[in-house]
């Protein structure tokens, strides 16, 4: 069994329903573009068009077969999470996405395992939708680094109801960077993907480390994508900062040992550092399909690192299976 624990999917049936129900979402503008559609939430700039790679389920399964991947953990597309919508509208938007993700999971014959979308612009509603998602069979959620999609922090006390629910439910909480993190310096040369997503994730995750969220809500299974987003490289600096002011912040070394990670690093030496820092038992295979910055051959990186047979099996499927079982 091989499980790709980091991928994205937009079921075509979801796009059809959203366009049919346009009047139900007054703060959303859906517009055709390049043979697809874009979304504009609450009058903000339109998203990129939904790419064919997100919606072509047959092509995705063919790629999985070619790579020897038996199952893929799929979240939606961060651009269309709708976390800048009015809260009640955002909750219904998330429920709609979740229903189609669950249906795609069933239609795939078990090849897909979905992660739910939540209205993180409102902590109480996010907790409610997360509980509903677990009742529907989801094992957790993927959330953006910026909970209102244009800013905000994951350690904001307004989100405590969500974190408490994730803790009580034992939810997977995969933290994923948003596309435009608000730093104009990374808008050239493909840097939003090459670097901006790293810095965005690193800041968001460091905040929930120092704030104590990782320890306080320790039953939530927090996954930091992109191989930990440079955490292994900067942990010494974060730890030194903690030693200077231990009364003001939680211990980052302890917190880092409680998090989970994926292999999406594109460099065996970087993956080896992650393994040496946190242990192979905290790491899962991840491709980030279908985006250009993804790893199109995600198993290959494992050939370049030092792994026992048991450790490789854990990365390829064991850890993902344990987290999804709860």
What features would you describe in this structure?
The protein has 326 residues and is α/β, with parallel strands linked by helices. The protein has a single domain (3-11, 55-325), classed as Metal-dependent hydrolases (TIM Barrel, Alpha-Beta Barrel), CATH 3.20.20. Helices cover 43% and strands 14% of the residues. It has twelve helices and ten strands. It has helices spanning 12-20, 52-55, 57-67, 87-107, 123-135, 160-169, 191-210, 213-216, 231-244, 252-258, 268-278, 309-325, and strands at 3-8, 28-33, 36-41, 71-75, 112-114, 140-144, 172-176, 221-224, 260-262, 283-284. The strands form three sheets. The protein has a five-stranded parallel β-sheet. It has a three-stranded parallel β-sheet with strand order 1-4-5. Strands 2-3 form a two-stranded antiparallel sheet. Strand 2 and strand 3 form a beta hairpin. Helix 4 packs parallel to helix 5 and helix 5 (123-135) packs parallel to helix 6 (160-169). The chain is globular and about 55 Å long. The model has no long low-confidence stretch (mean pLDDT 96).
């Amino acid at each position: 069994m091989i499980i790709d624990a980091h991928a994205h999917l937009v079921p075509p049936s979801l796009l059809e329903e959203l366009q049919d129900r346009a009047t139900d979402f007054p703060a959303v503008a859906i517009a055709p573009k390049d043979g697809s559609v874009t979304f504009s939430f609450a009058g903000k700039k339109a998203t990129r068009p939904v790419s064919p790679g997100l919606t072509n389920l047959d092509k995705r399964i063919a790629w999985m077969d070619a790579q020897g991947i038996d199952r893929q953990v799929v979240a939606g597309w961060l651009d269309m999470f709708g976390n800048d919508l009015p809260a009640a509208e955002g909750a219904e938007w998330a429920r709609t996405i979740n229903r189609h993700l669950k249906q795609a999971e069933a239609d795939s014959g078990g090849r897909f395992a979905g992660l739910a979308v939540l209205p993180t612009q409102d902590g109480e509603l996010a907790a409610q939708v997360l509980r509903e998602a677990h009742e529907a069979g989801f094992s957790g959620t993927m959330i953006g680094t910026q909970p209102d999609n244009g800013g905000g922090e994951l350690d904001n006390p307004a989100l405590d109801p969500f974190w408490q629910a994730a803790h009580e439910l034992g939810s997977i909480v995969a933290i994923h960077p948003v596309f435009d993190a608000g730093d104009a310096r990374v808008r050239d040369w493909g840097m939003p993907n090459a670097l901006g997503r790293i810095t965005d994730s690193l800041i968001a995750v460091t905040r929930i480390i120092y704030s104590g969220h990782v320890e306080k809500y320790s039953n939530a299974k927090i996954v930091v994508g992109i191989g930990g987003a440079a955490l292994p490289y900067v942990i010494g600096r974060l730890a030194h900062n903690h030693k200077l002011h231990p009364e003001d912040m939680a211990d980052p070394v302890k917190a880092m040992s409680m998090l989970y990670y994926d292999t999406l690093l594109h460099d065996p030496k970087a993956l080896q550092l992650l393994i040496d820092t946190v242990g192979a038992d905290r790491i899962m295979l991840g491709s980030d399909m279908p985006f250009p910055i993804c790893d199109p051959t995600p198993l290959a990186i494992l050939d370049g690192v030092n792994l026992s047979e048991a450790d490789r099996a854990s990365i390829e499927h064991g850890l993902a299976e344990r987290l999804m079982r709860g």
